[in-house]
Design a protein that fits this description.
There is one protein chain. This protein is mainly alpha-helical. The chain has a five-stranded parallel beta sheet, with helices on both faces. The longest helix is centred in the first third of the chain and has 18 residues. Helix 1 crosses helix 2 and helix 29 packs antiparallel against helix 30.
Amino acid sequence: MERAKILEQLDDLLIQSARGSGAIAAVSGSTAMGKTTVLNALAERAVAAGSTVLSVVSSPHERDVPYGGLAQLFHSIDARFPGAAVPGAALPDTADPTAQDDPSAMARQTHRIIAELAAERHVLITVDDIQHTDAATLGCLSYLAQHLTQLPLALVFTHGVSVDEQPPRILHDLLYRASVRRSYLGPLSRDGIRELAERCTASLAADRFVAEVHALSGGNPLLVQALIEEHRLRAAPEPGAGPLPPEGEGQAAKPSTDGLLPTGHVFHQAVIACLHRLGPRAVRLARCVALLEGAATPLLMSRLSGIDTGLVERYLRLLTGIGVLDGAKFRRAGVQQAVLGEIPHDEAADLRHRAARLLYDSGASPQTVAGHLLDIGPLREDWVLPVLREAARHALADGDVQLGIRCLELARECCTEEAQRVSVKAQYASAQWQLRPADSAQHFLALKNPILAGTLKGGEALRVADGMLFHLDFDDAVEAIDHLNDGNEDAATALHCTRLLMASEFPGVLDRLSRPLPPTAASATSTSELRARHALALILERGADEYAIALAEQVLQGSQSRSPWNLKGLPAALLALCYADRLGAAAEWYERLVTDEARHYAPIWRAMLDTVGALISLRRGRLGDAVRQAEAAHERVSGPRWNVSGAMALAILVEAHTAMGDHQAAARYLAPEPPPELFLTRAGLHYLYARGRHHLATGNTYMALYDFMGCGALMRRWNIDTPSLAAWRLGEAETWLRLGDRERAARLVEKQLSTPEAGLTRSRGMALHGLALVQATTKQPPILQDAFRLLESSGARYEAAAVLADLSRAYQRLGEKAKARPTAQRAWRLAKSCHAESMCQALLPSPMPRSVGTRESASSSRGGDREVRGGFGGLSKSERRVAMLASQGYANREIADRLFITVSTVEQHLTRVYRKMGIRNREQLLEGVQAVSFETV
């Protein structure tokens, strides 16, 4: 029941006892429930009514001091009646050994003194926390209780919950006499919290505020008051009005991520005060709970704290009941940190060491155990090093690279042998590569000598060689790989993975090895990384191989399980789909991966995914997206030295900016001179092709020819001559056309078309586009139409726009203006959606056609322009959509299908469009829309 009702009952008890009928009351409850507050309030009321109030406050430290409580009582009498001027007797000496030897005499004398006081006026004796009162004093109080029926005397006790001690029999007899009125103080209800909050803040308390305070405090009055005080200090306009600004000492309170009120220093100290009130065992147990966090179980806490398991469970129930804990964890992380913060340093180190070992022995996860080891420092015990390395592996796989690096740095200090230390350094180099890829070259190069000396072997050593390849340190990588390629079966799987990496990323380096790497075949039991690399290598060699596509999709399907171990294969699997011209599927998978909130990618993996995403966007004609993604990737991996990922992102930026017409931006990216090693990589092929496109777009035809031919020579030499990688033949053919050599251009296009391209829809469409350009104008339209259909179906919008632009020019040369205009307009709109500004400018009519129906002077023509522009601007949205599609050459039935309306509705819209624009047919509509300008449309 709430506090006011208990006080009303105690008031009745005072009235009854004042009439000469002594009474006893006991108020029980857990720690910090407000028992002392109730007792003090009762004493104030008694004093105001003219009663004599004698108080005893018991504490655990005085429990073994005989008559310690009684001494307080007599001191209280002495303070009220100086010189012990109590009628009839002097105060007894509680320190007198004779009195201690005769408890009955002391009890009778105490009764006589109290009776004489009560004869003068009503007496109230209060004892706070009577469970801590010494046994001798309890004997005197029990004697008083037995003989107070005819006295104007009231005895009121507060009794807390005792968890770890059995109360003495005399206390039980005293509290549970038949005449004792017993009350229980439990946690505050929500109504009680509301009343307290409104009294403290002098404003109405919102329901949300009350609910959050109740959830955080469990109704514990001490904690409730702390939360209200913090809220008041932050000077919120009203309780529960929204997120509160930070407050607190030391580390400020931060807004909570769980929707509850933020907590700060005041609340945290209130919780600690509750713990200390319960005694040292409760404090020790709370520290163990804070240390063990989510791994806390009664058994573990018992072993760590040295407290009996049954007692641990009782303490947990008590601490949950008073709002400190929620089961076996703290309600807020800030409270947990506050509890940890008050542990002395040496004690904390010892506790963490024991906690780490207990967790390890109980089978806890490496990450959980490592969390304690990181706060201890180096430990040269056999079990520590494997735990730290495994925890680092999990952290790196989960994207928490900083934690992985911390684990490895500590692991390096825990090593007792050189082989262990070198192995940890290899893992550390990989972690640094994931966090700061551009600055990680030194870590890999430092491990070359241990590899050659045989200290670092197997898969770990090959991972180091992979890092050297990434940074284009090919001589060192080849020396290391040759040393490791010694026929040892233990390294076979890692060698297979390295071979596939070199075949797909560094094909020019394979020839430098002194011994060929073992042949590779991915099985169903192979890792996702090996399967993804195998799929990519197959597609580069064979084109859109169905088996390779299925293999890549299988790896990507496995990513839905969110297992961190398939992360390394995702970029290669995405790239395989991109090179297979499965652009739609590749884009969908990319979006799934980067928008999955449950995944946290290390910088290198996010950069690799964004690089592939940029290539996909580039090939789908989303040039703005391609630039944004490639810039993000380039920023993560670029540094003072070139590396393969940075070069790939740079090549995409050059090609995208060239397609957009921003040749200055492309030139800026091409300004740094690339190292010769770049042209032994797949990224180098993209770089050559992109630079060739830039040279061609800026009129440097011979430089473009040099780049396209160089790209083709390398692709043929490495047996990865697939147009989906780089369409070098079409680039070279376009260059020869610019130079006027149609015959050489035709041979290149025919060679391209004769190459098997099963499934490469985009590449086939681009080849047909090239074929059309080397044909006579009369043969171009049907070929270009076929090319457009293929490119449109593959999602390659930029190339589709280029085809439509050339188709419009072909119609123009053939004199078919009715087809040329709508085709040009469709090309412009498609190019505009790709942000291909240079193509848009080339498609704009020059000079601008005059207004519809104008037969007059130039001034009249300008007036007509304004009239048409006003008429088009006056169309409704539905009319404008129909007009735009009609202006692009769509028939009424096609417009109806696209807009999901009837043909009759289309006809009605067009009738209103003609009337508003002052025109009579589609020919005039096309001229009118063109006169307005394509951008307005």
